[in-house]
Amino acid sequence: MAANGEAQPRLLKVTRDDQAKWYVADLSDYYSGKYPYVWLRDNCQCSQCYNKECLQRETLTADMDPEVLPASESVVDDGRALEVVWPDQHRSSYRADWLDCQRFSESQIDPISHPEYQVWGAEMNGNIPTFDYASILSTDKVLYEWLRVLQTTGIALVQRAPKEKGVCRQLAERVAFFRRTIYGEEWQVESKPNVSSLGYTSKYLVLHTDLPYYISPPEVQLLHCIEQAKGKGGENQFVDGWNIVRQLKAEHPEAYKLLSGVPIDYKNAATDQYPFHMKASRPIIDYDLRGELCMRYNDPIRAPYMLMPVEKVTEMYKAIKLFNQVIYRPQNLVHHRLTEGEMVTFNNRRLLHGRSSFEVQAGSSRLLEGGYIDWDEVRSRTRVLREKLYGIKRL
């Protein structure tokens, strides 16, 4: 709603600036915006220029004149729209409320693409956000809330799920679909011979992220407990990577610089769904172009070769040892032993996770099933739900 109480903002005044090649538009909500001519021509919403069924433009940038000057303009429909006539006599109409949302670098940040993170440590013990499996499947609002928690907190428990295989797939397909890796779309974690990963043993698993030897590692992980061993152990540990980054920056800036700036080599060669030989070289503390954290740490699959200047090798080992000391601080660790029918869902690029060794008593077994979903699909589904539930308009 506009600041003066109107339901939608209206155009009060539109002024040409042919030297800057933009309009200056004053709106009734006290916003004054600049709208470049070429940008307006590129974003004409008429049926010739824009397909409203698939929401895609049908004009080509190659055909645009960056120096275009409108032939004329007028404010119409009592300030609700700006109508522009171009030199070729093509007419374009732009709604005032649409223009009001187009603020370029001052536009509202998409909260789905850029969530406000809740950074945590040991205080999360016993307080991991929890959701009901059946409610996620049946209720859009619960699905939305679960996905938002995954984006902001990075971890959530899903409880009261069936104790059977295929449950992760049902949840993944409520969002979109599984991501396929060298282990398939879904995989079972159980002790077995001739393993392709230490995860398929009963041994202790150090804090790590999955599949750092992928250029684009898996993003959201689902891990469902179907059977839990009646013996000791099998407890999961989780650490928030953003919390570790904060501590390293503040306490050990030189180590942080090394860990975030010098690539570490990872490799894995075995046979699972098919024979594979994976390699990647990236820093342990990695970021994408948007500044999104991508932790890449998995001690068992660090390559024996180190493709870095030999002078940095000893210092890198010191930095990795210090990194381990920080991630294993009691104030950073969250412990949780999954119960049968419970699922942990978490951000594999943000969190490090591990597992204590376990014993299986006679007559019992331990079986977990997991899979991955990409953030692109999670964010897409979240935006669609947000539009549906809260009437958020698309730009």
Automatic annotation (TrEMBL):
Gene3D superfamilies: 3.30.2020.30, Clavaminate synthase-like (3.60.130.10). Keywords: Carnitine biosynthesis, Dioxygenase, Iron, Metal-binding, Oxidoreductase. InterPro entries: AlphaKG_dependent_hydroxylases, GBBH-like_N, GBBH-like_N_sf, TauD-like_sf, TauD/TfdA-like. The keyword Iron applies. The keyword Cell membrane does not apply. Its cofactor is L-ascorbate; Fe(2+). One of its GO terms (molecular function) is metal ion binding. GO terms for cellular component: mitochondrion. Residues 120-371 form the TauD/TfdA-like domain. Pathway: Amine and polyamine biosynthesis; carnitine biosynthesis. It comes from the Eukaryota. CDD domains: CAS_like. Residues 32-99 form the Gamma-butyrobetaine hydroxylase-like N-terminal domain. GO terms for biological process: carnitine biosynthetic process. It holds the Pfam family GBBH-like_N. Signal peptide: none annotated. Belongs to the gamma-BBH/TMLD family. This is Gamma-butyrobetaine dioxygenase. The lineage of its organism: Eukaryota, Metazoa, Echinodermata, Eleutherozoa, Asterozoa.
